[in-house]
Specification:
This protein is α/β, with parallel strands linked by helices and 165 residues long. The protein has one domain (19-164): SPOUT methyltransferase, trefoil knot domain (Alpha/beta knot), CATH 3.40.1280. The protein has five helices and seven strands; from the N terminus they run βαβαβαβββαβα. The chain has helices at 28-41, 58-64, 79-85, 124-129, 149-164, and strands spanning 19-23, 44-48, 72-76, 91-94, 100-101, 112-115, 134-136. Strands 3-2-1-6-4-7-5 form a seven-stranded parallel beta sheet. Strand 2 (44-48), helix 2 (58-64) and strand 3 (72-76) form a beta-alpha-beta unit. Helix 1 (28-41) runs parallel beside helix 2 and helix 1 (28-41) packs parallel to helix 5 (149-164). The longest helix has 16 residues, at 149-164. It is globular, with a radius of gyration of 15 Å.
Length: 165
C-alpha cells in the first residue's frame, strides 16, 4: 500500500484555531477519536469533569493511538469552572435540540465549540441560558436520535476550519 501525503494545514494557521470542549464525556473511544481530531487540526481539547472514564483508560488511548503527545489538553473540574475560565471566549453550543444549523455560524479563530455528553447532551439549564448560541446538525430524526459525538465534533470543526482557512 502506498502512502500519500494529506493536505496539510498552512504554516500561518491560527494557533490554536479552535477549542473543542466536551462536557462530561462518557465513552472513551469517542474522546480518543476527538483527541486525534484535535491533534490533526491543532485545536485544543477541553475535558469538563466528571468524566465517565479515567484519562488512563486503554480504550481512550487506543482510540487516540499515538497522538496523545500532540494534543493540547485542558481539564476543568466543572462546567461552571470552564465557563468562568473562558468567560471572554466566543462559545457555540451543539445539541440535538438546536433550532439553527451549525452552518449559520460565522466562525472565527479562537472560538470554543462545546458538545455535551453522549448520554445526556448539554445540561438543559445551559441550553436555556445560551439559547441564541445553541446549534444543531440537520438529520433525519425518524431514523436516528443523534449522531455519534466524535462524528458531530468532526462535522462542526471542519466547517469552522473551512470558513477560516
Amino acid at each position: 500500500m502506498s502512502h500519500h501525503r494529506c493536505f496539510e494545514l498552512p504554516r500561518n494557521w491560527p494557533n490554536p484555531p479552535f477549542g473543542i470542549a466536551l462536557v462530561e464525556p462518557k465513552i472513551p473511544p469517542n474522546t480518543g477519536a476527538i483527541a486525534r481530531l484535535c491533534a490533526a487540526t491543532n485545536s485544543t481539547l477541553h475535558l469538563i469533569e466528571p468524566l465517565g472514564f479515567k484519562i488512563t483508560d486503554r480504550n481512550l488511548k487506543r482510540a487516540g493511538l499515538d497522538y496523545w503527545h500532540s494534543v493540547k489538553l485542558r481539564r476543568h473540574k466543572s462546567l461552571r469552572e470552564f465557563l468562568e475560565t473562558h468567560a471572554s471566549t466566543r462559545k457555540f453550543f451543539f445539541s440535538t435540540g438546536g433550532r439553527k444549523t451549525y452552518t449559520e455560524i460565522s466562525y472565527q479563530p479562537g472560538d470554543m465549540l462545546v458538545f455535551g455528553s453522549e448520554t445526556t447532551g448539554l445540561p438543559s439549564n445551559l441550553i436555556e441560558r445560551e439559547r441564541e448560541r445553541v446549534y444543531g446538525i440537520p438529520m433525519r430524526t425518524d431514523n436516528v436520535r443523534s449522531l455519534n459525538l466524535a462524528m458531530s465534533t468532526s462535522i462542526v470543526l471542519y466547517e469552522a476550519l473551512r470558513q477560516v482557512g
